[in-house]
Design goal:
The protein is built from 4 helices and 8 strands, in the order ββααβββαβαββ. The protein is α+β, with helices and mostly antiparallel strands.
C-alpha cells in the first residue's frame, strides 16, 4: 500500500505515515513534551540516541510492517503549522475470516484537551475499515487509564470485556479493558 493511500485529513489535521523529511519536526515535538502527567504518559524522554540515521531506519521498519500487513503507524500533524502532535497505529491481529485489528493512539501531552485525539481517531477508524479492510478494531486499555477510556468511548467504541493477565508491562501481567468497533457500526 502506498503512503498517499494512507493519508487522511480533517479540518485541523493531516494523518499519514511518517517520511524522512519529518525527522526534525518529530524530534522537536518529542523534545518539547511536558513532564509526565500520569503513569501512562511517557512525558519528556531522552532523545539523544534518536539521530536522523536512527529515524530513517525506524521508517524502513515501518514500511516493512505496512508491506507485511502487520502494523500501520501514522503521524498526526496540525494543518496550521505541520507540528507532529502524536501517532495512531493499527496492528493486524488476524486476517483469515476475521479482519481483526488493534488500535493504539498517543497525543503529545502539551496538545491534550483540544479534541485532537477524538478528531484523529474518528477518521483513522474509517481508514482502517475502508482502506485497510478491517472488520473489527479493538483498543486494549489499562483499567485505570481514564483518558484512553474516554477517547475510545468518544469515537463510538464499546466496552466488551476485561482480559485478565493480558499484557506484560510494569514488571507484571496486567489486566486490560477491551473496547471494540465493527465496520458499519
Amino acid at each position: 500500500m502506498k503512503h498517499k493511500d494512507l493519508t487522511i485529513e480533517t479540518p485541523r489535521l493531516v494523518i499519514r505515515p511518517f517520511v524522512n523529511q519529518d525527522y526534525e519536526n518529530w524530534l522537536r515535538e518529542h523534545l518539547n513534551r511536558l513532564p509526565s502527567q500520569h503513569k501512562y504518559d511517557v512525558g519528556y524522554q531522552d532523545m539523544s540516541e534518536c539521530t536522523e540515521f536512527w529515524f530513517r531506519e525506524m521508517l524502513e521498519k515501518h514500511d516493512e510492517m505496512i508491506e507485511g500487513d502487520q502494523v500501520y503507524i501514522l503521524g498526526i500533524f496540525l494543518k496550521e503549522n505541520g507540528a507532529n502532535i502524536g501517532t495512531i497505529d493499527f496492528s493486524t491481529l488476524m486476517r483469515y475470516n476475521f479482519n481483526w485489528g488493534r488500535a493504539g493512539y498517543t497525543i503529545h501531552n502539551r496538545y491534550w484537551n483540544r479534541g485532537y485525539g477524538k478528531e484523529a481517531m474518528k477518521v483513522a477508524l474509517q481508514l482502517a475499515f475502508v482502506k485497510l479492510n478491517f472488520h473489527r478494531i479493538e483498543a486494549h486499555i489499562n483499567l485505570d487509564n481514564t483518558p484512553s477510556i474516554r477517547l475510545a468511548e468518544a469515537v463510538g467504541m464499546e466496552y466488551e470485556c476485561t482480559r485478565k493477565g493480558f499484557i506484560y508491562e510494569f514488571g507484571e501481567w496486567t489486566d486490560n479493558l477491551v473496547y471494540y468497533l465493527n465496520a458499519g457500526e
